[in-house]
Amino acid sequence: MPARGDHDARRRDVSAAVWRVLAARGFDGLTLRAVAAEMGASTGLLTHYFPSKKALVMHALDIAEERTMNRERRVAPAPGLPALRTALLDVLPLTPAGVAMNRVWVSSWDGALADPDLAARESGRYERWRGMLRPHVEKALELGELPADADADDVTATAAAFTHGLVVQALFDPERFPPERQTALLDAFLTGLVSRPSR
């Protein structure tokens, strides 16, 4: 029986290999064989950790979630809209690391649409993200940075939808959507929120 430390070290090695395969091939290319080849190990070793493809995908989603939550983030210059802008900039593919992270998440959508368990996880992830954005929107309303009759839920959902739409365009057409243009489009979007006429 291997020592606990050896087991944990091996699991970290497996997780690192899973991430490298994800970053290079996306979820469609994530297989036990691909991870084993990345490690220079046998698929038999991996079945000890992942008895099925779904177990492997679930672990990969856990890794992606952990890396997303623990990534380095910008510091907001002020509360309200500046903080919302900062949080949205952290999501855009403005750096190679940001591109890799977004490629992983976008590649997971196909499987999530086809599997109820994965779909529920993805829905929960979006709910948590909107939950992180909403306090910035509420503060912007409190500070008078948004029209007084703006609905915090609607603004939050719109900001999330706009940002992920921009993510997809930048991933598929990076020459047309370089970091500078992504930032300018985000700023124009936020300006539009401020200048929206009252109902």
What does this structure look like?
The protein is mainly α. The chain is 73% helix and 0% strand. It is built from 9 helices and no strands. The protein has helices at residues 4-25, 32-39, 43-47, 53-70, 81-89, 96-114, 116-142, 152-172, 179-195. α4 (53-70) packs antiparallel against α6 (96-114) and α7 (116-142) packs across α8. The longest helix has 27 residues, at 116-142. The protein is elongated. The N and C termini lie far apart (69 Å).
Distance linking N and C termini: 69 Å
Q: Structural class of the helices, strands and pairings? A: mainly alpha
Radius of gyration: 20 Å
The total beta strand count reads 0
Counted by DSSP, the helix tally is 9
Order of helices and strands: HHHHHHHHH
User: What average pLDDT do the residues reach?
Assistant: 89
* Low-confidence sequence ranges: none
Summarize this entry quickly:
This protein is mainly α. The chain is 73% helix and 0% strand.
Features:
about 200 residues, mainly alpha, 9 helices, about 75% helix, about 0% strand
Helix-strand layout with pairing:
Elements lengths: L3 H22 L6 H8 L3 H5 L5 H18 L10 H9 L6 H19 L1 H27 L9 H21 L6 H17 L4
Helix pairs in contact: 1-2, 1-4, 1-6, 4-6, 5-7, 5-9, 6-7, 7-8, 8-9
